[in-house]
Amino acid sequence: MVELLDAVFHALSDGTRRAMVATLADGERSVSELAAPHPISLAAASKHVTVLERAGLLSRRTEGRRRMCRLEPASLAAATAHLRHYERFWNDRLDALESFVTGSEEDP
Description:
The protein has 108 residues and is of the alpha+beta class. It has helices at residues 2-12, 15-24, 31-35, 42-54, 73-102; strands at residues 29-30, 58-63, 66-71. The protein has one domain: Winged helix-like DNA-binding domain superfamily/Winged helix DNA-binding domain (Arc Repressor Mutant, subunit A, Orthogonal Bundle).
């Protein structure tokens, strides 16, 4: 699980790859279509797609001469679950701080 999360967070650390994932949320796209909005070569786009694929965020299939990409949400769901744990932790901590600062802390 840790290796999957490392790969997902690494893949999402790049703005171009995050934009590609957002584009794929609207449906399947070719590598060329994913590259089009970015000032990168097709080879660079293919490398970004490979990083996303290794992280399990997308899958590729060949359709004639085109490489079609599809979002695979399972890896993203694992990362979201991991972050939710920390969201709850920080919300609890901030609620406790707010209670302390405002003096409304209740006796246990």
